[in-house]
Structure formats: C-alpha cells, structure tokens
# Entry
Amino acid sequence: MTDIHKIRNFCIVAHIDHGKSTLADRILELTGTVSKRDLREQYLDSNALERERGITIKAKAVAMRYQGYELNLIDTPGHVDFNYEVSRSLAACEGAILLVDATQGVQAQTVANYLLALDGGLTLLSSLNKIDMQTAQIEESLLEMENSLGIPKDEVFRVSGKLGQGVEELLQAVIDKVPPPTGAADAPLQALVFDSQFNEYRGVVAYVRIFNGRVRRGDRIRFVGSGTQHEVEYVGIFTPHMKEVGELTAGQVGYLMANIKSIRDVRVGDTVAPAGGVSVPALPGYKEPLPVVFCGFFPTGDTDFEELKKALERLSLNDSSFKFQAETSEALGFGYRCGFLGLLHMEIIQERLEREEGVELIQTAPSVTYEIVARTEHGRAVLRVDNPAKLPDDSLLEEWREPVVRASLIVPTESIGAIMSLCEGRRGTYEKTEYISPTRVILTYKLPFAEIVYDFYDRLKSLTRGYGTLDYRFIGYETSDLTRLRILVGGQEVDALSVIFHRETAEQKGRRILRVLRKEIPRQMFEVALQAAIGKKVIAREDISALAKNVTAKCYGGDISRKRKLWEKQKEGKKRMKAVGRVEIPQEAFMAVLRGAEED
Amino acid sequence: MLAASLFGLYIHVPFCFKRCPYCAFVLIESDGSLHERFVGAVERQMERAAAEFDRPPFTSLYFGGGTPSLLEPAQIARLVEAARTRFVAQGNVEVTLEANPDGLGLGRLRDFLGAGVNRLSLGAQSTDDRELEFLGRTHTGRQALETYHAARSAGFHNISVDLIFGLPNQDVEAWKFALERWVKADVPHLSLYGLTVERGTPLERRRQNGLELPADETQKALYETAIQTLSRSGYRHYEISNFARPGFESRHNLGYWEGRPYLGFGPGAHSYVPPCRWAAISNVPLFIERIERGEPVTGMEERLTVEQRMLERIFLGLRRAEGVFAPAFAEEFGVSIEQRYGPIVAELMDLGLVAWRGGFLALTPRGKLLADSVIGRFA
# Structure
C-alpha cells in the first residue's frame, strides 16, 4: 500500500499551445519514467489526430516514482469545448501547474483554467514557460499574470519545457507545496471517474482517483450515477504503459477495468462505490455531458445509412459526450442529427468519421439549441429545437429564446476597436474592459451563442493577427427576435439549408447566402433559381444560368476510352453531391450557408 | 458477314514538321529519318495482328496523325498494300489520308491517289491568316484553298476539310464567311472542332498567362451558326463535329461510333475488339525498336465491363444524328435502354435534351450543345 502522505496528484493547465505536453515530457524524463530515447514528442497525446491538431482530447494519468514519492500527473484537455472534462480532471488533483507561454502572455484559457483550478481548491504553482525563446517577453508576462490573476511575480517559476530548465525546481515544489491527498484506505470505496476510454479488446478503461477505501481485482463495484454494477477484473496504473497492480488505495490515481462494454456506463464525473447497499455519497460536480452544437450528417457517395450508423456507433464507444439520433431530411434523406460539446468537437468527430471510418458525408451547417414557445393542440408548449429544419410552422411560433454566453476576449489594445465592432455586429452586449498590461485587455461581452458558433473565433484571430483569445461560459437562455430563413433551390425548399437568424439581419444574410450558393452550385443543364424566404415572403433571388455549351469536339478511336474514363471520374466527384430535385448540390454548399451569412 | 465484325484499320503516323501549340497528339517533330523504319515497323505490326485475329475483314483504312502526308506516296502505297495482303478487304475500301496543305502539290496528290488513297482529310483549320498564325500552322488560308482545288483536279472526289472554331476574337460573321467559302468550293465533308485547351500544351500555358478564349455563350453561337449554315447548304450534321453531303460520311469514323472493332497501328494507336481495348506505347523511337526486336508494344489495355460498354454505346450513339438504336441496344446487352436508364432518359426528355425518334434515342438541338453533360448523366 502506498503511503498516502507520499502521494502528489497534480495536473498542468494552460492555454492551448503553451507547451503543456512538452513540459509533461520533461517531467516524465526527469523522473526516469520514460527514457529520452523512448520519448516520442509529446507522449501524452495519444492519437494521431490529436497530435496533428496539437491538442490533447483525452486526459490521461501517469504515475511516476521520484525521490520516494508517487507523483501522478493528470493531463487535461486544453480547449473550451472540453471544459467539463477539464473540471473533472482537476477534481482528481490537489495541485496544478499553471503554465503561461512567455512569448504569448496570459490568454483567455489561462484565465479560465486558473479560475477553474481555484474553484476546485487546488494549490497552484504558477510558471512561465519558453523563457529560452528569443521572443519571450518575461517581464510583460509576469506583469500580466499579476494584473489578471493576482499572482505575485516572485512566486512564478521560470521554466523551459524544451530545454528542461527549471523543471527540477518545479517538480520539487510539487512535492513541497502540493498537499498530499486525504482519505481513509479502510473506509468504503469512493472513487472519481475522471475519464474513460474504450479498448476494443478489453472494454472500457475507467480512469479513477481513489478518494477513500481501496479497489482490487474481484471487487464488486457500482457506478453511483449510472447505477450499473460490475466485477473488477484489472486495476493498474500508467507508467506510462498500463501496468497491473494488486490494488489502488485512497489517494492513488490509476485505472480499472470491469468487463464493461459500453462507455455510457462509465460516465466522466461518476462515483465508484462498492456494490450492494453500502451508502457512499456521490462526489460533487457530476454533470451529464450536454451537447451544445448540432449538425446533420448524411451519407453520400458509396456510404449508406447503415454504414454511417455503424461508424457513429463505433466512434461513440470512445466518446460518450457525442450524441446522435436518426433524422430524415426531405432534401438529404436519412441521416443523423449529432450533438457536440462545441465546434472543435464537431470537427474532430467529422474528421474521425471520414478518416478512421472511411465514410463519405454531407454535413449541414451547425446550429445551437433554441427554446421555442409554440402553440400546440394542447395549448402553449416550450420546445427545444436544435435543427432549423424541424421547427413548427412559422405561424405557430410565439416566442424564441436562444442560449447566451459570457465571453472573455483577451486582445491587444490596438485591436479593441475592431473586436468591439465584431462583437456588436454579432449582437453582443458590452460588459467591461480590464487592462492586464498596458498593451492587452480582457473584454467581456454577453453574446448569443449562435453568433460565435461558426466563424467568430477565426474572425477574432484574423482581427488580432493571431493574438486574440476567447473563452466563454453559458449563462442561460434569453428571449430574442429570431426567425427562420428558408432556402429554395429550383423552386423546391431545401430543408437542410434552413438557418435561424435574428430578424433584423435575416434579410441581408439571406442575400449573402444566395450569392455564396451561386458560386458553390455548378451550372447545370438548365437555369436554377435560388431563393431565400422568410415566412411566405421571398426576400432574395439569384439565378444560376444554364450551361451554354459543353461538348467535346473530337471523338475517334483513341478518344473513346479517355472520354469514358472522364465521365466515370466525374461520377466519382458527384458522389459528394446531393441531388435536390434535379439540381446537384455539392457538399460544400451545405456548410457554405453560414459562411455566406458572415461574408461581407 | 455481320456488319458488327467488319473492322476498321487505323495507322497512326506520328510525324509533323512542327507541333502546333494546341496539339496533344502522339507525334514527334520529324526530319524524315525515322520514316522508313516506321513504315517497316507498321508492316510487321500488321503481320502480327493478322495472325492474332485471323485476317479479319475490313472496310476502311485510315492514315491519321501527325501528318501522314509527310510520308512518301510510295510508303503509303506499301502500307495500303500491306493492309490488303494481311487482312481481307471487303468491297470498295475507304482509304483516308490526313494531309496538311503545305508542300502538297498536284503531282504529289496524284501519287497519293495512285497509292490507293481515295479520301483526303485536309487539315485546313482556317482560311484566315491571323487565325492560322495563332494556331501555329505553317500554311496560309490561300494555300489551304489552293490545295483543296488541286486535290479535286488530281482526281479526289471524297474530301474532308477540318476547321477549328472558338478562336480568340472570332465572331459569328467571320466564321460564317469562312464556312461559306468552303460551301462555295463544294467540299463534300467538313469536320468542325471547337478549340479545346489540352493539358500540357503551349496553348494551356498561354491561357494560364491570360489568353482569353471566347466565352461559353460565344462558342455556342459559333457552333449554332455552323449547324444552320451547313444544314441550309445540304450538309447533314451526322455527328457532333461532322457534316457531310449525302453519301460522303466517313465510313471509318462511323465504325467507331457504331461500336465496331478496329485495329490501330503505330505508336499510341488504340485498338478495340470487344470487350477489350488496348493501345500501343506512345514513345515513337521505342515503339519502332520494340517492333524491330519482336517485343510487345502494348501500353494500355482494358477489358470493358458490360456497364462500360453500355455507356460507350450510349455516348457514341448519342453523338450521332440518328442516336442510339434501342432494339440493337437491347439485343446486344439483354436489357433495354428504358430498363437500364429509364429515370435518366425521362429526366433528360423532360429537360428537352433528348427525344425518342422511332426506335432511336437522340439528342435534341439543345442536347447537342450539352452533349457531355447529358452523357454524364448516364455514367
């Protein structure tokens, strides 16, 4: 049994790309957990897609032996989409290293993660990374940390994850300053599931932090939230490879496997307790993962509905926060309405479907969840609608409510004007400006979530030449004057192209959407009318003129195979289109709807 | 003998003085040094094919290029003779020679006639000297017309003239004037080609560097002008790009469009003996060397699926004035056009792009303008 006083559980929190994974690598190396030779760049990022995007999606934990201590490093996701996962990983720790990139300074998620860690009662070790870089602005960064986070300059560790400079001192501080866990090994089992992963051969791997009691092979356990009971088959730690141990006791971090087939039985944030009647309080903070961004996935090309379904099921084995439900579109046929934690999460799932599962998809524009007060046969009802195509008839709608967030934007002072007009253009309500240094500010705005879902982040980046960062929190639903914009192609409504906009801008956006669609939809053998309508009123129209001439001149003996192959190839290309009536609409057009709305 | 088993023979003569900037054909710029070896190689290639296919009957022989008229009449005579010896000539065989106007005088024309050529395909391309310069041709408009008249004097009755339209700044009036010149000259056959920018050609580079070619709408107007002008003058628009006075249709090319077998000789030449199509390698010296060493020269080879053959039958048929003959299609494939392509045909009819005429499915005038898109629906 590990002496609980010799355990330190900690994580590293940082804004994306501030060097968290590199620092983790140095720590693994310094503690002799992984030899330099074996060390891949950024050990903790487990799948290729994550590595490619430079972000860590799934938290992992590594147990290290160092100076007689058991140090458990818990990695956390760095993106706002995965805030809940971050908060659960933090709940497994007593301490956190807050990492700030000296070349970037304090960023939106630095602040967000700092506040999360403080809320969680964690001991914080603030550190400034990349001090070896020529572009490091050490004094400015320290000033920003002091101004925005209240961290005294002399408490900040200065490190270089790349060179390993200062890492030893930082690790010593983890031992000295982070308190050991508290808890009783002889109490009934109480453990937190802070992450889980599905393994094809072994079922679900639950990452757990033991708060009280112990767990070993053969124990019968119960997940308090999901209510399912299982017999433990393996317990172990990551070194960083999976290593079976006899037991995990209070204070330790590791994994357990109990022949669990569905990741939905092992919910992040759930509490593990002994099976049977022993009363163990659930650990606080558990939430159902709540999708906030939705889009439709429809099979196209060689993929059929069944294959898409299987692919979604396989993916969901590994990701319980992503939801999907069968839907039917008049334009696109059978497909799935999918819910995600955020836009990045949506992109990751879409890429994994195409890359790992090899399915061909048409994706519709993302939408948020609206609350609609509508008249029904039984009087008024509040409906939650995440699909503009599935709204009740306009005449039945009485009130619209939309999700609203409080957004913190950290931007250079010279971009304040541009960012303020961006926010105002997105129906934002200004709340405050805080200077964190003479050159950078935190702007706080209340914004409709729908307005930041699509390209807000990209706009922020381009208006601040890459320096602006964003974080947001949901603050609830507010009444708003919204309306549905319908798009008709060749006189036929394309439900999958419907979008919800604020009434004031809907007309203008409708016109812009048509201009973009006109470019995205290739000329056909006939003229195609594009129309945008609000209610029954057509508010804009664009025509795609018919092809004038498309005929190959020569077709003799040597041309026949070549021509035929060309058509066969075109047919391949058409698989990524959907025929609506007679009009072939390319995949890009479905996503272009929102791009069109925002283009100037 | 079934018409379906009558072969066309094609000889690709891959030599030109100079490659034209729009041309992507298999050819080399030639000083004549390889001609004799080339002729020998084709003779040997014919000998091999005759053995392999058991001396099939043929009704046409076509010298395409390149510039076949660069070969000496005696060399052409040898190849005509080789064809007649190795294969079985059926009736009055059509022997076409593609020729460029430059360097083609009355005497040489007579010699080609004497060599067994009975149809001349003259690569005039234009009669406007500025257009000819743009096209990189080495003859003038006047030479083109003179050569045509010389061919008539030499005794050629069956003559086709190639013209290219859709050139920069070309307008409908100028194009109409050019066509009428040839009508007045009583040419019995015209092949009209919209200028196509082929990949890897100097023309493609020029376009990338900003050369402007007429818009779709202009191309359409030029094409329609040609159809009107020639139809009024007694020509039948018997294939997308081909117009003929009655009886002067190219028998050889009809073979391609009717899906009949053909054997090609020379580098890059395609052959088709259903269900297989293959082509010789394109590298001219290598082709000759391999033949001389007795080695195989096949480069591309494919075995067509029924689906591919149906598509070819549809697309080649639709390019012809008559269209696709439905009973023949059903007999060949055991499935009718309606069964296989019913909804597509219905849609295209609805759009006014195809129509049934008797047992034939054919393109309407507007369908002809959009033939590639229409056919794309069948793929």
About this structure: The two ends of chain A are 65 Å apart (CA to CA).
